[in-house]
Write a structure and sequence with these properties.
The structure holds 2 protein chains of 2 kinds.
Chain A: H1 3-17, H2 21-37, E1 44-46, E2 53-55, H3 56-79, H4 87-105, H5 109-137, H6 141-159, H7 170-177, E3 179-180, E4 183-184, H8 185-203, H9 206-215, H10 217-222, H11 227-251, H12 265-275, H13 287-307, H14 314-329, H15 331-353
Antiparallel strand pairs in A: 1-2, 3-4
Chain B: E1 8-17, E2 20-30, E3 35-39, H1 46-53, E4 61-66, E5 69-70, H2 76-81, E6 84-87, H3 99-104, E7 110-111, E8 114-115, H4 117-130, H5 147-159, E9 165-169, H6 177-192, E10 196-200, H7 204-210, E11 213-218, E12 221-227, H8 233-241, H9 246-249, E13 268-275, E14 279-286, E15 291-295, H10 302-310, E16 317-322, E17 325-327, H11 332-337, E18 340-343, H12 347-351, H13 358-370, H14 378-391, H15 408-420, E19 426-430, H16 438-453, E20 457-461, H17 465-471, E21 474-479, E22 482-488, H18 495-504
Parallel strand pairs in B: 3-10, 3-11, 6-9, 9-10, 15-20, 15-21, 18-19, 19-20
Antiparallel strand pairs in B: 1-2, 1-4, 4-5, 7-8, 11-12, 13-14, 13-16, 16-17, 21-22
Helix pairs in contact in B: 4-5, 5-6, 8-18, 13-14, 13-15
Classes of the chains: A mainly alpha, B alpha/beta.
GO molecular function, one term (chain B): ATP binding
Organism (chain B): Plantactinospora alkalitolerans
Domain ABC transporter (chain B): 8-244, 262-505
Chain lengths: 354, 522
């Protein structure tokens, strides 16, 4: 075996030990299924008129952008030992705020920026409320954010007076539908935001402290960590990212659908985090894992459409794939398999006598 | 008196956990119709032995004989069917269910249409009546009665299965004197019915009031079995605390009582500092460069007092002056801000952050002080990590390993390093040497002595009195949540002296001695 080969094998082992290894395998398998159905599935071509990349892979990346945002935020909240059920509703609030703002103020780029700012500010504010409910009032994260989940959708309906508000604004629309150097803006923005959050969390001591309070809140308190500000920051960040996701989701159709935008996306975010290998009990988190999880969910959604699974069977299909994945990740199940394999390795001798 | 054959006989029990031998060749016997107390300080192996008997832990070697037959018990359900029931310190009952449901949980009387609640409550009443609790209304929720009564309900629940062995793990820790008397009456009743009772308590007076026989454990080793009436308190405490190995004796042994100018403003001056239910108002002066030992048995208030000084618990009376300035210390953050560091006795729950690396654990307190927005640079981290891993000899010397994979002694060194990195002026060490091997112990003691030389005020708490006497210049003696005296250490002060103070206090007439000043003042 050459050294490079050995290094590759070693690298593969390290990767296999990562929790999100199975997520990557699942993405590849799903892509393979699609290729079996249509060999040209993976092909990416250049649109000759404007030089933009088009293809199913580009679609998947584009669709993954909102999930990516909320999954990254969720991974931080989960690391503290909490959960944020309100991200889907905060998405619709952000969408409602931006659409109403655009409708009232017109077409210019400045208005688009204003809409973006207003949407993100309202989202972050709702996140701060979540954080205060959790850390100051002391409510359980599940309950606090469940309340916000219900209140958020209600708030969106109040903002739009119950209508599905549509608006037209070129620059705002460009966020979700534009292209830069052949790549969708929304994908580039998502990548930039993820890198930015990763940089802030890992370059400051935020990540360390989030993990510390997630692993052992008592010991963290004794070490002088103030959980209050930290939790408010984390919930605010999660909501801010949900706001960005809401802008992505509404800008692509320039309409906010108060009952469907962001609907049940909190579940996708939680799944993405779990697929990424995080424990819902809190502790160590991996942004790479959350990214893999989000990509998997986007791939899965695309596969369902591509295979023509009937819409009534969609939830069941999705559930089946995710259950299999969770089983593969479960240490207990894996041990069971290793034991059986070991037993079978011993078995042949006995079978001769039998 | 003819000795009947023991109902439980454990021989040569050993259990090892990663990095520590929890039980090392321990013997234990329990006879029917006796109250047998298991004695030992924290980490002596009492709970481990109970868990070995009830099948919570698997034993590595040794045998358990129940009723003369060797048994391998896996789990509490099997223990119960073997006739062993346990009542733990924190009542393990469902406060939202009724008293009767709690007593009969899992043993409900069944009729043709499921559970016959009327018969079940009747059976519960009968079970309670056996303990003299027949007056309780079994249909009221458990939460409606006092903790003491809940404790008794837990016992009657344990006796529903006709247990031959009843284990009571610190049942009295949250009861007042009258409630303890009630519990003891019930225990005596059961004993007279032939039940073997294994009792654990840290209160010596209670042990002498109720138990017939004692087994003493120390550091996971069997120290001896005695009849209670043949072993006096002083001898018992000595056996629990024991003598340490010669290795340790060489270390700063019997520090000379330095002539200290006590009129100088102390670093920390606490006046009447206390907290209801944990420490009675206490006065305390701590000077720079001085090691002050807190001596007392578990539950004496030694830990609780330390927690008040750091702000881990909020004092509800008294005041603290730091260098003559009145200061409020209500949270650990306040403590750290005033250069106080507190290394907890509860290493696993309140000390290390297990999944994080040694590096992250070492820098945690310094980083917390700076806030998350001002991260330590990698170079500063390396400086802290390098300095303390070398100075304290942390093994293995790999800072990126999760701290939970280190042995207890090395975890303790990491914690010590975490606090030293904050440059404390007052360092409070609660049981820094518990459950760790002799080598690590010596290293930690060495570091403590050096710190004091360097001008740090140190509070040193240990259940090993020898250690306290060896290291401290001054010893504050506590008992029953109160400071009962203060000794200025000198060449002629021995652990025995401290033991005598603890044993004598409050039992007979208060010991007259010129060194003891019960109020610690005037």
């Amino acid at each position: 075996m050459s050294t490079t080969e050995r290094r590759t094998v070693g690298g593969l082992r390290v990767l296999m030990r990562r929790q999100f290894f199975w997520g990557i395998i699942a993405i590849l398998l799903l892509l393979l299924v699609n290729v079996l159905k249509d060999p040209s599935f993976l092909s990416v071509s250049v649109n000759s008129t404007n030089g933009n990349l088009v293809g199913n892979l580009v679609d998947i990346l584009r669709a993954s952008a909102p999930i990516l945002m909320i999954a990254v935020g969720m991974s931080l909240v989960v690391a503290t030992g909490g959960i944020d059920l309100s991200v889907g509703s905060i998405m619709v609030v952000a969408g409602a705020v931006s659409m109403e703002f655009l409708k009232a103020n017109g077409q210019s780029g400045g208005v688009a920026l204003g809409a973006l700012g207003a949407a993100l500010a309202v989202s972050a504010l709702l996140g701060v409320v979540n954080g205060i409910l959790v850390s100051v009032v002391g409510l359980q994260p599940f309950i606090s954010t469940l309340v916000m989940m219900l209140a958020g959708r209600g708030l969106a309906k109040v903002i739009t007076s119950g209508q599905n508000t549509a608006a037209s604004n070129g620059p705002f629309r460009w966020i979700a539908n534009g292209y830069v150097i052949g790549l969708p803006v929304v994908v580039l923005l998502a990548v930039v935001v993820v890198l930015l959050v990763a940089l802030v969390v890992r370059r400051s001591a935020l990540g360390l402290m989030i993990e510390a309070i997630g692993v052992n809140p008592k010991a963290s308190r004794m070490a002088g960590i103030k959980p209050r500000g930290l939790l408010i920051t984390v919930y605010a960040l999660s909501a801010l990212l949900a706001g960005i996701a809401g802008v992505f989701a509404t800008a692509s159709v320039m309409t906010v659908d108060v009952s469907r935008t962001g609907y049940q996306l909190e579940l996708d975010a939680i799944l993405a985090v779990v697929i990424g290998g995080a424990s819902l009990a809190g502790g160590k988190f991996s942004m790479g894992g959350a990214v893999v999880g989000a990509l998997l969910i986007a791939t899965l959604d695309k596969t369902i459409v591509f295979l023509g699974v009937s819409s009534s069977a969609t939830p069941a299909f999705k559930a089946a794939v995710i259950i299999v994945l969770c089983l593969l990740q479960s240490e207990r199940v894996r041990n069971l398999f290793t034991q059986r394999r070991a037993a079978r390795a011993r078995a042949p001798k006995e079978s001769v006598t039998a | 008196m003819t000795e009947p054959s023991p109902i439980v006989e454990m021989q040569g029990i050993s259990i090892a956990f990663p990095g520590v031998k929890a039980l090392d060749n321990v013997d234990f016997r329990l006879f029917p119709g006796e109250v047998h107390t298991l004695m030992g300080e924290n980490g002596a192996g009492k709970s481990t032995l109970i868990k070995a008997l009830t099948g919570v832990y698997q034993i590595d070697s040794g045998s358990v004989l129940i009723g003369g037959q060797e048994q391998h018990i896996h789990g509490t359900a099997e223990a119960q069917s073997a006739g062993i029931s346990t009542v733990y310190q924190e009542v393990n009952l469902c406060t939202n269910l009724t008293i009767g449901e709690n007593v009969m949980l899992g043993h409900e009387v069944r009729g043709w249409s499921g559970v016959n609640w009327r018969a079940t409550h009747r059976a519960a009443t009968e079970a309670l009546a056996k303990l003299g609790l027949g007056h309780l209304d079994t249909r009221r929720p458990l939460s409606s009665i006092s903790l003491a009564l809940q404790q008794l309900v837990a016992i009657s629940r344990a006796m529903v299965t006709d247990s031959k062995v009843l284990i009571l793990d610190e049942p009295t820790s949250s009861l007042d004197a009258n409630e303890v008397d009630g519990l003891f009456q019930v225990m005596r009743g059961l004993r007279d019915q032939g039940v073997a009772i294994l009792f654990v308590s840290h209160f010596l007076d209670q042990v002498y009031a109720i138990s017939d026989r004692l087994t003493v454990l120390r550091n996971g080793k069997y120290e001896g079995e005695y009849l209670t009436r043949e072993l006096d308190r002083t001898a018992l405490i000595s056996k629990m605390i024991g003598k340490d190995l010669e290795v340790l004796k060489s270390l700063g042994s019997n520090r000379q009582a330095e002539e200290r100018d006590r009129t100088v403003t102390p670093l920390v001056k606490a006046t009447g500092i206390g907290r209801a239910g944990s420490v009675e108002p206490t006065d305390l002066d701590l000077h720079r460069g001085e090691i002050v030992g807190f001596a007392g048995l578990l539950g004496s208030g030694r830990t609780e007092l330390a927690r008040l000084l750091y702000g881990a618990d909020r004092p509800d009376s008294g005041e603290v002056e730091i260098e003559g300035k009145k200061t409020e210390i209500h949270t650990p953050v306040d403590g750290l801000d005033h250069h106080i560091a507190f290394s907890t006795e509860n290493r696993r729950d309140e000390g290390i952050v297990g999944d994080l690396s040694v590096r992250e654990n070492l820098i945690l307190a310094v980083q917390a002080k700076r806030g998350w927005a001002r991260p330590l640079s990698r170079r500063d981290q390396d400086a802290i990590v390098g300095k303390y891993m070398t100075a304290l000899n942390v093994r293995p010397a790999d800072p990126d390993r999760p701290v939970k994979n280190l042995s207890g002694g090395n975890q303790q060194k990491v914690l010590l390093g975490r606090w030293l990195a904050t440059n404390p002026e007052l360092l409070i060490l609660d049981e820094p040497t518990r459950g760790i091997d002799v080598g690590a112990k010596a290293e930690i003691q060495q570091s403590v002595a050096e710190l004091a030389e360097g001008g740090v005020a140190v509070v040193f708490i240990s259940s090993e009195l020898e250690e306290v006497v060896r290291l401290s210049e001054r010893i504050v003696v506590l008992k029953d949540h109160r400071k009962i005296g203060e000794i200025v250490n000198g060449p002629d002060v021995t652990a025995q002296e401290v033991v005598d103070i603890i044993a004598a206090h409050g039992t007979e007439a208060a010991l007259e001695s010129d060194i003891i000043d019960p109020e610690g003042k005037d």
